[in-house]
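Design job #97: recover the sequence.
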């Protein structure tokens, strides 16, 4: 797949493929691009592989528009929607490897339902602790 045009709406980036199909993915996957101004978002280059924002140090491959997980879900959605959460600290509280937690958040690995429930439960526990301060 190759994109011929891109545009932004809300928290999504859209593209028009060379076959005339419209594709999209969430900007939650791309923190720098999500926070960028319209001018910064429009300062990109495309090549045969993808889109590059050199001043933002951000790249999106055309291939990624075909991934099944266009929108973060589960714990990935929680952590990507709330960058103020310290994933490494949460991982430490649960005795989960920091690198494994990072893979869960990036979508490279999927936690089991039990592990995801454990992580979400710990986040709720942290919320209760903060509410009681």
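Job complete. Output follows.
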């Amino acid at each position: 797949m190759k994109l011929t045009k891109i545009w932004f709406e809300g928290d999504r980036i859209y593209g028009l493929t060379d076959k005339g199909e419209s594709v999209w993915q969430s900007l939650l996957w791309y923190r720098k691009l999500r926070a960028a101004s319209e001018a910064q978002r429009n300062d990109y280059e495309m090549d045969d592989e993808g889109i590059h924002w050199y001043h933002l140090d951000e790249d999106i491959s055309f291939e990624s528009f075909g991934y099944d997980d266009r929108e973060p879900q589960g714990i990935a959605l929680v952590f990507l929607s709330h960058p103020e959460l310290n994933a490494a600290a949460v991982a430490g509280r649960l005795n989960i490897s920091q690198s494994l937690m990072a893979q869960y958040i990036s979508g490279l690995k999927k936690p089991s339902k039990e592990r995801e429930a454990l992580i979400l439960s710990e986040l709720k526990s942290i919320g209760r602790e903060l509410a009681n301060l």
